[in-house]
Design goal:
The structure is a single chain. With 230 residues, this protein is of the alpha/beta class. It has a single domain, classed as Rossmann fold. The protein is built from 7 helices and 10 strands. A 6-stranded mixed β-sheet has the order 6-7-8-3-9-10, sandwiched between helices. It has a 4-stranded antiparallel β-sheet with strand order 2-1-4-5, with helices on one face. The protein is globular. It starts with a strand and ends with a strand.
Amino acid sequence: MSLAQLIDLTKTYHMGADVTVNALRGVNLTVEPGDYLAVMGPSGSGKSTLLNLMGCLDRPTRGQYVLGGQDVSQLSDAALSEVRGQRIGFVFQSFNLIPQLSALDNIEVPLFYQGLPRHHRRRQSHELAERVGLGPRARHRPTELSGGEQQRVAIARALANDPLILLADEPTGNLDSTTGEEILTLFDDLAERGRTLIVVTHDPEVGKRTHRVVRMADGRIVNGESDNHR
């Protein structure tokens, strides 16, 4: 069974009495377990809207989004929040860490909301910090970490709930080329271990590393079957 299916997904924004923006226009996409997928296209092509819908941050105007066998297209806000917390991991360009907390505490946040005991949260956050290569830096606050280290914290946090899908929005956009390469190598390793990854990017070099590239234009997928034969 497919991990995720988008069926004729449409998203329309009404910006005023006479202004309508068709952000997505009947998108169809299937994501299989273990897919390593890049979503590419110019600004305004619908990439961010697609990511928001796949991350259950928004609902489609029309169409279906089936995630893990469940149609989540028209769930209530509370139900969507539960799906986000249990099934989806997010990695953002701007890291979105809580500055007052240490790296370990940031990683623990999703586990806290799951109601897990503190000793369990702490053990798991240590394991995740080691997995992404933070090592002794894990007790530092975000302001004491480099951009690459902050992104490693964000990736560990995204993995904390063992999500069905890891969604990354321009994950190397705020990093220099060397640090960005290190983060992409970490993504490659996660993909090799069977993690399902969807990366929104403008960078063709990022797209070359993935198994498959979906290209978007004007709210539509213009190709979705490119295979990089990794």
